[in-house]
Amino acid sequence: MDSSVDGFTTLSVSGRGGFTRAVTATDLASDGAKYLSSRIESKKLTVNFFLQASSLSDLADKTGKLKKLLSVRNTEVSFADDGYRYTGTVTSLTFDDTTLHPTGTIEITLSDPYCYSAEKTITGTGTSVNLSEYDDTGFANLPAAIEFTSSEGISTFQVTSNQGKHFLLNQSVSAGKKIVIDFKTLTCTVNGATVLSSVSLNSNFADFRIDHDTKLTFNANGNYVIRFEVKKL
Predict the structure, then answer these.
(1) pTM score, two decimals?
(2) Which overall architecture, per CATH, does domain 8-113 show?
């Protein structure tokens, strides 16, 4: 907003660091209750801002532009002092006064309470890779993509993790051809050609999680590229 609306200045942002957890429990005949389950709830960010205008018409123009920018739903939200991105919807815009230099508040509801880093990349050659570059946040995330180019012809391609996840492509792949597993779009290609029908149904496609302690192992030697975003609360 600071660069999109002339005269708009962010004063403070609160709510990024906390969280609330809803607990489901059943009361016991004795003291207390028995825990059943829990979930992290949506969180709310509060942005305090200052808007400077030179006239009433200028204020109206800037307010209109601000409202237009804030009307987008479930969109990416980022801040200059934070390397992580959030996804949310503006649920409230209020002004504290009616002067030409009002302060105000923007409330953003984050349906997804987690935030995500810019995409990181690990490249190398071999049959395994440690993902220690994934910050130790305590929260695993789906990788963006795994690319692998085998140095030899293989009858099948498999990548497994030390945490029980695996992906199996039941198709022969010649040496030098790139295999791309895109976990965001749930697609798999070999040299750009779709091979989704050859992916084993037992593969952890939609739930192949990685974290700081993950080690990936390939069933052949080759060049790999791992792309991922770090997830934190």
Answers:
(1) 0.84
(2) Beta Barrel (2.40)
